[in-house]
Amino acid sequence: MAHDIVFFLALDDETAAATRLRGPGGAFESETCRSIEPDSAIAEWDMYFEEPSAEAPPLEQLYAWRPWPEWVTAPLNDGVEVFALPKRLTRALANASSAELEELAGRWTARLWSEDGDDMTEDDLLAVLQGVARLAVSAVNTGGGLYSWSF
């Protein structure tokens, strides 16, 4: 499981890839959370906006979801991953209502609880989603991209 996840804004994939070794740090607008898998979270969020439902999808359906987030740097054995969020997800998050973010947070929390139980992240997942949605608004307004860095 990933330990530190930073969702951040960058102008393009090349700029995002440059964060690989040290993380985005304070040079990028960001939202941080812990103890989640960013690729499955991104896929779940994308699935929610394409097929809205308050119920968490079965894991087989989640893992079969396409498009799965794409790496902006080739993965190495150090555990660091930098993903680009799909453009359609960035637009959906930017346009999401408070009610949609609340429903998605509830669904995401339920899935993580069923998988991780007491080891689930202690982060407020609604606050994480709200922070990522604010980043998405900036990405849409500036023409940049939304990315995740994790270790």
Characterization of the model:
This protein is of the alpha+beta class and 151 residues long. The chain has helices at residues 13-17, 38-50, 59-63, 87-95, 98-116, 125-142; strands spanning 4-10, 30-34, 70-71, 81-84, 145-150. Strands 2-1-5-4-3 form a 5-stranded antiparallel β-sheet. α2 packs across α4, α4 packs across α6 and α5 crosses α6.
Global shape:
globular
Residues in β-strands, percent: 15-25%
The quaternary organization reads as single chain
What is the number of E strands? Answer: 5
Helix count equals 6
Distance between the termini: 9 Å
State Rg: 14 Å
Which structural class matches the secondary elements? alpha+beta
Q: Helix share of residues?
A: 40-55%
Sum this structure up briefly:
This protein is 46% helix and 16% strand. The chain has 151 residues and is of the alpha+beta class. The chain has a five-stranded antiparallel β-sheet with strand order 2-1-5-4-3.
Features:
alpha+beta, 151 residues, globular, single chain, 5-stranded antiparallel sheet
